[in-house]
């Protein structure tokens, strides 16, 4: 559905921003690589992964501000605009970039402090980390989309994050299903 030319595989599979830029700069200069350069410069600003931060913001917004629903909705819509969710072309590149964001997020979910409890004194088991990662991804995609009635606007985002999550661990498919059935 979101097929890309094989020449882009290394770029989209790389997590390190500096290495991604090297790969991108080595590509043949054409319309596609120019578009990817624009996406890259929007995603990585001031040595920060802005899109990764915006994904975390979506997860934090899930379930927040019940009294200020219109403010939250406005914030979510702003994030979606920043993430190019309203893009009517280059869906395959947007989808792959979203998967890269999810993969980069999930790469942090195996750290020793992730999903710990009791102010970090109780370390989480590997399964607990996977379940927490599933919850985080679900909240920043399907969960917030449901709360804000924005599933149509977030289809590519939801699919990309789901597809990346399912590759993360076999437990994820069952856990995501459980979360979605609520």
Q: What can be said about this structure in brief?
A:
The chain has 182 residues and is mainly alpha-helical.
Structural write-up:
With 182 residues, this protein is mainly α. The chain has one domain (6-180). Helix content is 64%, strand content 2%. It has a two-stranded antiparallel sheet with strand order 1-2. A hairpin with a 2-residue loop joins strand 1 (44-45) and strand 2 (48-49). Helix 4 runs antiparallel to helix 5 (69-82) and helix 7 (126-147) runs parallel beside helix 9 (171-180). It is globular.
Unreliable residue runs = none
Number of strands: 2
Distance between the termini: 28 Å
Q: Give the overall average pLDDT.
A: 91
Number of helices: 9
What value does the Rg take, in angstroms? 17 Å
Number of domains: 1
Q: What percent strand?
A: under 5%
Order of helices and strands: HHHEEHHHHHH
Q: Determine the fraction of residues in helical runs and give it as a percent range.
A: 55-70%
Biggest β-sheet: count, sense, barrel?
2 strands, antiparallel
> What is the spatial order of strands in the main beta sheet?
1-2
Shape: globular
